[in-house]
C-alpha cells in the first residue's frame, strides 16, 4: 500500500513526490510531466518571484535560459520523479473509499489493476474544477496566441476556433505547434478536501515553480 | 454467447457477459487515430460508413503529427492519401502553419465533414467477441466506460492492443533476446533560420510494461545529449515517443523475409512496400540469420527490397470482424522494418477502409469479400500499382562517399565466371549474394579464387564461398579474424560492414570450432581495445559516427559473441569453455567502458548491456541444458 497516490505528473505533483519519495506513486494519464503549464503553452506569470524552497529556486533557475522562460523548461522537472514510483500512460478508472484507505482501479497497457493508498492527492485541472479555459497556439519567436473557449469545447472545436480567430485577427506569425492540453483557469476554491480526497490542482498556482514549491510544502505536511 | 475479453494485470481474461445492450452502434470502430487510423477513419467515413474513432492523445495523426515525423524512407507513392497530403501542404502555406500542425487541423476538419466522430483521451479497455468474431469494444473515457457495437473493428493502435486483448496470436522481438528496435525522442529545434524536428535515438523500451515505459520517459525526457545541446535551440519535445517496433499479429497471410528471398510472394497484394531492411540500431549482430546473411554476410543492408503486402496481412489468423492496419500487421520481424514507413501506414489505412466498405455495403463478412473487388478500388486510386513490383534496387540520393547515387535495379549473377570481377572490388556484396543463390554451382570457381594473389579477390571469394556453405572458406576467414581485417566494404550508401566482422559472421554461421580460441581472445583480451583498428573512428563509410561510442570495437565484439554462441549451439563440447569465457569477460562491472561511457538507458549504453545479457543468457541456457 502507498502512503499517497498523486494524480497527475504535474509541477505540484512533482513537489509532493519529491518529499514523499518511495511511499508515493504518481499516476499520469499522458506521457508527459508538467503538461498543465508547458503542454498548454501557459507558462504562467510572476516568474520574478522567488519561491520558498531551495529545490524550487533551483528548478526556476534551470527553467530560465538567459533570463527568458525556456519553452522546453519542463524537461527539468523529470528528475524530481526519480525517487518515487511513477506510471505514465495510466488512467485512473475508479476510486473506492475503504475504512482506512482508498482502493484505486487503474488502466494502462497491462489493463486493469488495483492499488491501495492511505491518501489521494489530485493535482489535475479539468473542466470540473475550472471557471474558464483557453486554447493556445505556439507561434514562431516563442509568442503564444491564446483564445478563451467555452468549457464545453473539445479539442477539435477549440483548435478550429483558435486557428479561425487567428486568421480573423490577421496574425501572420507561423504556428509552430498547437497545444496538447487546455490552459485551465482553475477556480479559487478548487483546492479542498472532499470525501477524503485532497484536491490540489497544480494549475491553481501562478506559475510552474510556485506550483512545485507548494507541492514540496504539501509533501512535507503529508510526511507528518 | 457474447464474451468480453479484457486485460487484467497484464493477462487476458475472457468471460461470458450474456446479452449486451450496446451504448453505441457504428459500421466501423477505429481504435487509434494515428498515421494509419486517422486515414482509415476518414476514408471509411468518406465511403459513407458510420465511424467512431477512439484516440488516447488530444490530436489525430500519431507519429505523423504528435510524433514530429514528417519524412520517410522510400515507399511507393500512390493512393487516396495523396489528396490529403496536398490539402495539408496547401493549408500550411495558406495559414502560415508548420506541416505537422496543418495535418492535425486538416484531418480533424475532414473527419468532421465526412461525419466521423472523434473521441479523444479515450482507450479501448475490452473487446466483445462471439467466439472468434469481434463484434465491438468497451471504451474508457475519463472515468466512464461505454460499449460500442461495430461491424468492423480496426485496431490502429500500432501496438495491437485490441488484437492482443481479443486473444489473437502475436509475435514480438528479436530471437536473441526478445528486444525490439530502439525508441527515439523527437524535438522541435531552431537553428536560427528554420524550425525542424530533431530525432535522437535511445535504448530499448518495453512499451507493454508501464514501469519500463515510465523509466524510458523519465530518462529520455531529461537526457541532454552533449553534442546536440550546442547546435540548435530546443523549442519543444514532441508529445509522442518514437516507438519503431512492437508486437505483430500472426495474420491469415503473413510475409516473411525468407519467403521473399525465395521469390515466394502473395498473389493478392494490397500494395507494394519498398525500402531497405533498416533495423535502426547498430547491434545488427543480434538479429537473426536470414537478415544476417543479407545485411552482414553479404553487406547489402541498405539495398532496397520490394515487399508485396497481402491484403490478408491485416486480418488476424482465425478471427473475423477485426482488421489491424498499422505497424502491427502480420509480417515477420525481419521484414517489419521495411513495412513501417509513413506511406505504408497510409496505404494500409486505405486498404482497410475499402475492405470494410465492401463488406458493410454488401452485408458480407470480411472473409467473404472477393479480392478482385478490393483490388479494383486500390488500383483505381493508385494505392496498388503493378509497376511498383520491382526487383532489389540500389536507391537513395548519395553514395557512402557523398557522391550522387544513380538508382538502379539489381540483377543477380547467374554464371560463376562472372563472380570474379565484382569480387576483386571493395563492393563484392552482390557477388556474395549471387554466390549464395547459386549454391554449389559457384563453389569450384570460388575455391579457385581463394589462391589469388589479389587480396580483395581472395578474401571476398572466401566470404562468397562461406555464403554457399562451403567450409573451404574457413582458413581465410580465420585469417581475417586474426588480423582484424578493417577494410570497410563499399556496397551500400550507408551502414557498410568491416570485412573482418563479415568473416566472423560466417565463422559463426559455419560453426567453425577452430575459430573458437581466436574469438575468445577477441572478446576477452584486456588489451584488445588497444589495437590500431579500434583507434580509427574516422572511417567514412562507417555507421553513424557518435562521439563516445567505439562502433568498430562494438561490431567486432558483438559479432564474435554471436559466432561463439552459434559454435556452442552446434558443438556442445565447446560450451563449457565458451561459457567460462563469457563469464570472465562480461561479469566484470568494468566491461563496456572501452566501447562507451554513456548510461545504460542511452542507445549506446543499451547496446553494451544487450551484449552482456545475450552472452550471459547463452551461458545460463547451456548450464540448464546439461
List keywords for this structure.
heterodimer, A: 224 residues, alpha/beta, eight-stranded mixed beta sheet, four-stranded antiparallel beta sheet, 4 helices, B: 626 residues, alpha+beta, three-stranded antiparallel beta sheet, 21 helices, 37% helix, globular
Structure description:
The complex is a heterodimer of chains A (224) and B (626). Helix content of chain A is 22%, strand content 33%. Chain A contains four helices and 14 strands. Chain A has helices at residues 11-20, 54-63, 155-168, 208-223; strands at residues 2-7, 24-27, 64-65, 68-69, 85-87, 91-97, 102-108, 111-122, 130-139, 144-149, 175-178, 183-186, 192-194, 197-199. The radius of gyration of chain A is 18 Å and the shape is globular. The two termini of chain A are 17 Å apart. By secondary structure, chain B is of the alpha+beta class. Chain B has helices at 35-46, 81-94, 99-113, 161-165, 210-222, 226-229, 257-261, 289-297, 333-336, 342-361, 371-381, 420-424, 429-438, 443-449, 455-467, 474-483, 499-509, 516-524, 551-570, 575-586, 603-625; strands spanning 2-8, 11-16, 24-31, 51-54, 117-119, 122-130, 133-141, 144-155, 170-171, 184-190, 195-201, 233-237, 248-249, 269-276, 304-310, 322-323, 393-394, 408-409. In chain B, strands 1, 2, 3, 4, 5, 6, 7, 8 and 16 form a nine-stranded mixed β-sheet that branches. Chain B has a three-stranded antiparallel β-sheet with strand order 11-10-12, with no helix packed on it. Chain B has a two-stranded antiparallel ribbon with strand order 9-13. In chain B, strand 1 (2-8) and strand 2 form a beta hairpin. The two termini of chain B are 49 Å apart. The interface between A and B is large, with 50 and 54 residues.
Helix-strand layout with pairing:
The complex is a heterodimer of chains A (224) and B (626).
Chain A: E1 2-7, H1 11-20, E2 24-27, H2 54-63, E3 64-65, E4 68-69, E5 85-87, E6 91-97, E7 102-108, E8 111-122, E9 130-139, E10 144-149, H3 155-168, E11 175-178, E12 183-186, E13 192-194, E14 197-199, H4 208-223
Parallel strand pairs in A: 1-2, 1-8, 2-5, 8-14
Antiparallel strand pairs in A: 3-4, 6-7, 7-8, 9-10, 9-11, 9-12, 13-14
Helix pairs in contact in A: 1-4, 2-4
Chain B: E1 2-8, E2 11-16, E3 24-31, H1 35-46, E4 51-54, H2 81-94, H3 99-113, E5 117-119, E6 122-130, E7 133-141, E8 144-155, H4 161-165, E9 170-171, E10 184-190, E11 195-201, H5 210-222, H6 226-229, E12 233-237, E13 248-249, H7 257-261, E14 269-276, H8 289-297, E15 304-310, E16 322-323, H9 333-336, H10 342-361, H11 371-381, E17 393-394, E18 408-409, H12 420-424, H13 429-438, H14 443-449, H15 455-467, H16 474-483, H17 499-509, H18 516-524, H19 551-570, H20 575-586, H21 603-625
Parallel strand pairs in B: 3-4, 3-8, 4-5, 8-16
Antiparallel strand pairs in B: 1-2, 1-6, 6-7, 7-8, 9-13, 10-11, 10-12, 14-15, 17-18
